[in-house]
Structure formats: C-alpha cells, structure tokens
Specification:
The chain is an alpha+beta fold and 92 residues long. It has three helices and two strands, in the order H-E-E-H-H. The structure holds zinc ion.
Length: 92
C-alpha cells in the first residue's frame, strides 16, 4: 500500500510585499466591481472591499458608484471601512 506523507500546513507569514499585494488585489477587485456595475443607478449602493493593508480584513465599504469615482479621483486614497466617518466628513 502506498503511503502518502502530508506535510503539516505551514503558517502563512505576511511580509510587507504580501500585504501590499493583498491591498492591490482588493483595489483591483473593487475596480472590477465598479466597471461591471457601470450602468447601475449612480445612487445605488455597491459593496466594495476595505482596502486597508490588514491581510485579514475583508470588511465592506458601501458606496455609490458616484462616491467610488470621487474617491478614485484621488489615487493615493484607499477605501477603508474603519474610516467611513472620515470619508463622510470629507464629502466622499
Ligand atoms: Zn480594513
């Protein structure tokens, strides 16, 4: 009988590059979501991923496509679920 030895799963270690890759993926997914829903009513709320660097965070940021476009007009700005109050205060 053939025996297969399975390696125990190794813990995922995140370094700065992986965190940046995850953040970048979330931004890309958000853009796909936005593009796919381009014809939606601009006042309809769309769920986007939080774009913070926390690799465990998949919190939702609800924005209209109009607000998403406004946020993307500032490329350095990420969508963050934890800072929705700040975004609202900034008029986004
Ligand atoms: Zn987050």
């Amino acid at each position: 009988m053939l025996e297969t030895q399975l390696e125990p799963p190794t813990a995922i270690r995140w370094d700065g590059r992986q965190e940046e890759a995850v953040r970048s993926r979330k931004r890309q997914a958000n853009q796909y979501m936005r593009d796919a829903l381009r014809l939606l009513d601009p006042d309809e709320l769309i769920p986007f991923f939080c774009e913070c660097e926390d690799t465990e965070c998949f919190a939702t940021v609800w924005l209209t496509s109009r607000d998403f476009d406004r946020a993307r007009a500032r490329p350095a700005q990420d969508l963050r679920a934890h800072e929705e109050a700040l975004l609202a205060a900034a008029g986004i």
